[in-house]
Amino acid sequence: MSVGFESAIGSHVGMVRSNNQDSGYAGDYLFLVADGMGGHAGGDVASAVATKAMAALDERPQFTPEATTNSLRTAVLETNTKLRSTVRERPELAGMGTTFTGFLTVGDKLALAHIGDSRLYLFRDGELRQITRDHTFVQRLVDSGKITEEEAKTHPRRSVLMRVLGDVDSSPQVDTEVLETRPGDVWLLCSDGLCGYVDDPDIEKILRRRGSLQGAVDSLIDKSLAHGAPDNVTVVLVETTAIEGERVIEEPNPRFVGSAATAPAPRDGSVTTARTRILRRRPVRRPPQIEESHFEPRVDEYLAELIAETRRRNRRRRFLWAFGAIAVLLSVAGALFLGYEWTQSRYYVGTDGDTVVIYRGVQQSIGSFQLSSVAEDTGIPLDKLDGLEQRQVERTLGAGSLEEARDIVLRLGVSDG
User: Does the predicted TM-score (pTM) go above 0.90?
Assistant: First the structure.
């Protein structure tokens, strides 16, 4: 038994941007996502050029998975050269760049190439696992233990890239890997418009509950829109299936989305998929400020600046936490003090078991700390009171002042017996 692959794809401009700088491709053997750098002119051109250039590889690999991986890396580097040539022809696009994350299927293996912060995930046996590592400075801080994964999600420099394709680096470093796959696996390729705003547990839940691949793609994009979708979002899902005999492609079925699509992506809130659909209207969260991606060539210098900035942020955070903790403690202490002062303005008539006593405070305690003390011992024996008044004194009689408490004692009927 061999394996086959089914796929679905979708892309959306998002709720904030005016154009889609993402591109995606789902073919017969090749699947990829490219995210143009939003901080530069030509991000949409960069992702479209890269996607269309790489789409030429979409044919049955003739080599081993390892050799196919080498061919894929070579093609990515040739695409980088093509992007640089495009800038020479169109100088107004200077500084453009794009991420690239994609794989070729080779039997029951995948030949992967990755550069930038688009991602590949594997959903297997009900659990989602990130396969690629982001080529960002913030990820470098996470890897070195200077910040946590949670802190990375909200870091102000999280979109600064260390590696991209384009007019920024003549020989970029591309990660490659051969991955095993088996029937039931679902591979998720996405731009950071999804993984940057939708948490992994939510993605996992959608994949677990999927009715179909295309339905899951649409649900993932919907989820990003529900979070405000401040960035473009592109999603490719590829499921590994079991088939009898050799895998045969009877009719090629290449699909482009985003800026690489033949027709421009609609800008009226619809999503480009194998067929265009209008997304359901729903309330959305207030979109966060867009973090424009850009490439930073000064690796060591910029990383040093980022580490110094992170230390300052951590110091400020620790100071604010300490200040907040002290403020809370002072507030609690103040509330306890005022509460205690109020209790000491109250009085009640009670008993120590033998005589009638006027107490200052209230008849409660905090742990072993009593909130009342003896103000006056009247010397009146409890057994000299009639039955009703004994019971009233045992239950205590409240008073707003010492004088009021004395008046209550004077009104008690003391028997002569």
Answer: no
